[in-house]
Design brief:
alpha+beta; 4 helices; five-stranded mixed beta sheet; single chain; about 200 residues; about 30% helix
């Protein structure tokens, strides 16, 4: 959902006010030389990134579709490992399924031990259409998903692929955030502002 910065700032101020005991935590607009609204703007994206990285993928759906051409490691389309380039703004790949797979892939990082298994001479431990695997890998050209694997020559494409984009503030002062994590983003933003104020008091 798309939220305006004005709403986020208002909701963050409300969250900070919930911490009041006997006096307000912060002045209406400033704390000493610090502008509250500017602090909220400054910490919003880092707070949103932290929450999104920690959240279960189910809370981040629906994602954005990936429309890209597959490359094939062995050079023959539909055979072996496919390489899916990920968008520059990709934070998480949350779903991918090729047309010859029985289900969507388990998605893991290249640091996972199972990534090394994909080069095993024993086919039973490698990803296959019945047990597909996707590994997020950093390459010189950027992030890619290695998709293991297919065995349908010249007949394999992307059935669906979805990703979560990195949050950013649009030119019209709006930001897209999954509805399910909005409250958590506000809480994390308020905590970061409170930490700045706490540091300023010392």
């Amino acid at each position: 959902m798309t939220y305006t910065l004005a709403k986020i700032i208002r909701d963050t101020r409300v969250m900070l006010d919930l911490n009041i005991c006997e006096r307000p935590l912060i002045a209406p607009d400033r704390y000493e030389n610090l502008d509250i609204d500017s602090m909220i703007r400054a910490v919003l994206i880092p707070a949103a990134l932290e929450v999104m990285e920690e959240s279960d993928d189910m809370l981040l759906t629906p994602g954005k579709p990936i429309r890209a051409l597959l490359a094939w490691q062995e050079g023959t389309p539909g055979m072996g490992m496919a390489i899916l380039p990920l968008p520059d703004d990709c934070l998480k790949l949350i779903a991918v399924k090729l047309t010859d797979w029985c289900r969507q892939a388990q998605i893991k990082k290249e640091t996972d031990a199972e990534h090394a298994w994909q080069s095993s001479p024993f086919p039973g431990v490698r990803g296959n259409p019945d047990r597909p695997m996707a590994f997020i890998c950093q390459r010189p050209t950027g992030l890619v998903a290695e998709l293991y694997s297919s065995n349908t020559p010249n007949g394999v494409g992307i059935e669906y692929a979805q990703y979560v984009p990195k949050p950013h503030v649009e030119a019209d002062d709006t930001i897209r955030l999954p509805d399910a994590i909005y409250h958590d983003v506000i809480v994390r933003t308020a905590k970061k502002v409170a930490d700045i104020i706490g540091d300023a008091r010392q």
